[in-house]
From TrEMBL, chain A:
<dbReference type="InterPro" id="IPR013563">
    <property type="entry name" value="Oligopep_ABC_C"/>
</dbReference>
<keyword id="KW-0813">Transport</keyword>
<dbReference type="InterPro" id="IPR003593">
    <property type="entry name" value="AAA+_ATPase"/>
</dbReference>
<keyword id="KW-0472">Membrane</keyword>
<dbReference type="GO" id="GO:0015833">
    <property type="term" value="P:peptide transport"/>
</dbReference>
<dbReference type="InterPro" id="IPR050388">
    <property type="entry name" value="ABC_Ni/Peptide_Import"/>
</dbReference>
<keyword id="KW-0547">Nucleotide-binding</keyword>
<dbReference type="GO" id="GO:0055085">
    <property type="term" value="P:transmembrane transport"/>
</dbReference>
<comment type="similarity">
    <text>Belongs to the ABC transporter superfamily.</text>
</comment>
<keyword id="KW-0067">ATP-binding</keyword>
<dbReference type="Pfam" id="PF08352">
    <property type="entry name" value="oligo_HPY"/>
</dbReference>
<dbReference type="GO" id="GO:0005886">
    <property type="term" value="C:plasma membrane"/>
</dbReference>
<dbReference type="GO" id="GO:0005524">
    <property type="term" value="F:ATP binding"/>
</dbReference>
<protein>
    <submittedName>
        <fullName>Peptide ABC transporter ATP-binding protein</fullName>
    </submittedName>
</protein>
<dbReference type="GO" id="GO:0016887">
    <property type="term" value="F:ATP hydrolysis activity"/>
</dbReference>
<dbReference type="InterPro" id="IPR017871">
    <property type="entry name" value="ABC_transporter-like_CS"/>
</dbReference>
<keyword id="KW-1003">Cell membrane</keyword>
């Protein structure tokens, strides 16, 4: 089956003031139609930058993208500004961590949805309004007629996130990108939004890339997970496989450091140190300095991502 | 389930970096600062209330947010008490009231047998109670070096500058940051995890007995969070501390605390030992909160959200039990009668377990209420 999203050897470098920073380094990832892939990583791992590359959201004069991105057969990096504007929201749309910042505070939520629909399709305002109402019902917003006339600031966090999901789905995209959409929410609301996304994804057959720092969230929503560290994918596989038998020392460390299954009051296993500075990455494997099983050859050679089986791969010299 | 790393390699890792402050747990010696003896609660909170006025003009009424609406609890010496709840439940306001960062509208604080404002002055109380906040950057002065930040409090309280700096260096060492490398740096030169270690060192500089940790690890990356949690447990032993640990992350709370206090809309919903609350929650709200945690099991994902709707607004709390509009087992009586804390038993460690639910109160009129009250 041809993948819906096919990222090949993507690198993103931010130039601007001072030293150039390579935030994403030679990342390849493909997502099948109707598949949910979680990008898991800490701050600075490059997960959000990878996601934003799919909509080309990086500042043009301060960033450089290399590699290829194909979405539904279309070469994203070659799109003209006009074609890009058609592509955004129509084929691929995105939901953000903070819907309060992503939505326009001076227009009602309903008007923003209507505007989006009419930007992409030639339909009447009345028709677009009817579709907005249907969308609000679909994302289970209580009293949808009243909420369409509300401003983003007068909605609670969970309600705003539902409204943003409605906005993202307004033009029936094939791909939904989610950038930590539940991180700012309470646990009780987070689980509601995760289940809503899971249901909508199934119903609409969406391909989803879901960026998160929380393994628990990845397990709830994703089919596959790709773990990122210092701008690269270090491990990839089915969620159940990665969670049960992690291979890369970083993934193993992350899972071992979790408090969920630790005996209360016992000492936690930890990954020593902190994530590296992307502007001054060490030679060889970027995780080497924090790695408990590192060998001298890890400093000499940077491990490439190797597909070990049809469904699994990692980037470690010692797991082969 | 996680394929643990071999013990030998783990030890090896800890000797590299950062230097972990792991020392053999000391036996609990009698603290010379102790006044009331081990049975006296370190902090006794009674009838704590804080309402905020929003809107309105100097002449008009506006509305009232009942952020904290009558909270009582005792903090046992040497324990870690967790406070959990959704946003808007009043957990951070409670922390700020305990720290006296704002005046409560009503309520008494008794610290080790001495009433605040009576036998105990605010200056002395503040020496004994310290706080660590979520935002590690905003809580440090960007123009002060690390050592000056840590030495600032003791100097204000009368310690000569030279001694205060020496103490700062000692504390930096204890929180796992080399004084020679870090003392002269500024907050923006450090990572989030390092800054949070500084904030912990600064809280300890006053030699407090109670440290309030308000979402202190929530902003850290998972791999760094584990390091800081280990550090907090070591320091608790070493400095004979009592913690109030506030977090929205129930997994971290379960790991850290001895007892848990669950808050809902400014009131205590449940209070009990960690195992009792996590294994047999007595309040339907606690049960729903626990069921909202991601399952971590790809074969048994959560299928239905345990609670619908957002946390309600503390501006107009519903009458009767505040949780009744979202409660699956609510009955007519719940919208009329406000539940009091009722004992549900004692756990193995001897901690009392109580919940503010009509199902737990004998003769409340709820069909699932017990016939006879459980003795407290």
């Amino acid at each position: 089956m041809t993948p819906m999203i096919d990222i090949r050897n993507l690198s993103v470098t931010f130039t601007g003031r001072g030293k150039a920073v390579r935030a994403v380094d030679d990342v390849s990832l493909s997502v099948a139609p109707g598949e949910v892939v979680a990008l898991l990583g800490e701050s600075g791992s490059g997960k959000s930058v990878t996601l934003r590359s799919l909509l080309r959201l990086h500042p043009k004069n301060r960033s450089r993208m290399e590699g290829t991105i194909r979405v539904d057969g279309e070469d994203v990096l070659a799109l003209s500004p006009r074609a890009l504007a058609d592509y955004r929201g129509r084929k691929v749309s995105m939901i953000f961590q903070d819907p309060g910042l992503a939505m326009d505070p001076v227009y009602t939520v309903g008007r923003q949805i209507v505007e989006t629909i009419r930007r992409h399709e030639s339909v009447s305002t009345a028709e677009a309004e009817a579709r907005a109402l249907a969308l609000f019902k679909k994302v289970s917003i209580p009293a949808p007629e009243r909420r369409l006339a509300a401003y983003p600031s007068s909605m609670s966090g969970g309600m705003r996130q539902r409204a943003m999901i409605a906005l993202a789905l307004a033009c029936n995209p094939k791909v939904l990108l989610a950038d930590e959409p539940t991180t700012a929410l309470d646990a009780t609301v987070q689980i509601q939004i995760l289940l809503l996304l899971r249901d909508l994804q199934r119903e609409l057959g969406l391909s989803v890339i879901f960026v998160t720092h929380d393994i628990g969230v990845a397990v709830e929503v994703a089919d596959r997970v790709a773990v990122m560290y210092a701008g690269r994918i270090v491990e990839e596989g089915k969620v159940a496989d990665v969670v049960r038998t992690p291979r890369h020392p970083y993934t193993r460390g992350l899972l071992a450091a979790r408090v969920e299954h630790a005996v209360p009051g016992s000492r936690l296993e930890t990954i020593p140190g902190a994530p590296p500075d992307l502007a001054e990455l060490p030679a060889g494997c970027a995780f080497r300095e924090r790695c408990v099983v590192a060998e001298p050859r890890c400093a000499a050679e940077r491990p490439a991502f190797v597909q070990r089986s049809p469904t699994r791969g990692d980037a470690c010299l010692l797991t082969g | 389930m996680t394929g643990p790393l071999s013990p030998a390699s783990t030890r090896n890792a800890e000797s590299v970096w950062p230097p972990e402050v792991w020392r053999a747990p000391k036996k609990t010696v009698l603290d010379p600062r102790d006044r009331g003896g081990p049975a006296q609660p370190l902090l006794s909170v009674t009838g704590l209330v804080k309402h905020f006025k929003v809107g309105g003009s100097p002449f008009g009424e506006g509305t009232v947010v009942r952020a904290v609406d009558g909270v009582d609890f005792d903090l046992i010496k040497g324990e870690t008490l967790g406070i959990v709840g959704e946003s808007g439940c009043g957990k951070s306001t409670t922390a700020r009231l305990l720290m006296q960062l704002m005046p409560p509208d009503a309520g008494r604080l008794v610290f080790d047998g001495e009433e605040l404002g009576g036998a105990l002055s605010l200056t002395e109380y503040r020496r004994q109670v310290q706080m660590v906040f979520q935002d590690s950057y905003a809580s440090l002065n960007p123009r002060l070096t690390i050592e000056d930040s840590i030495a600032f409090g003791p100097q204000v309280h009368g310690l000569p500058a030279r001694q205060a700096i020496a103490r700062a260096h000692d504390l930096l060492d204890r929180v796992g940051l080399e004084p020679a490398r870090f003392a002269g740096r500024f907050p923006h030169e450090l990572s989030g995890g390092q800054r949070q270690r500084i904030n912990i060192a600064r809280a300890l500089a006053m030699n407090p007995r109670l440290v309030i940790l308000d979402e202190a690890v929530s902003a850290l990356d998972k791999s760094v969070e584990a390091q800081v949690l280990n550090l907090l447990m070591d320091l608790k032993q070493e400095f004979n501390l009592t913690y109030i640990f506030i977090s929205h992350d129930l997994n971290v709370v379960r790991f850290m605390v001895d007892r848990v206090l669950v808050m809902y809309l400014g009131k205590v919903a449940e209070l009990g030992g960690r195992d009792a609350v996590f294994n047999q929650p007595a309040h339907p709200y606690t049960a729903a909160l626990l069921a909202s945690m991601p399952s971590m099991d790809p074969d048994h994902r959560v299928e239905r959200p345990p609670l619908t709707g957002d946390p309600p607004n503390p501006i107009n709390p519903p009458p009767g039990c505040r949780f009744h509009p979202r409660c699956a087992v609510a009955e007519a009586v719940c919208s009329v009668k406000e539940p009091e804390m009722a004992a549900t038993g004692t756990d193995r460690a001897g901690a009392r377990h109580a919940a503010a639910c009509l199902m737990r109160a004998a003769g409340s009129g709820h069909s699932r209420a017990p016939a006879v009250a459980v003795p407290a």
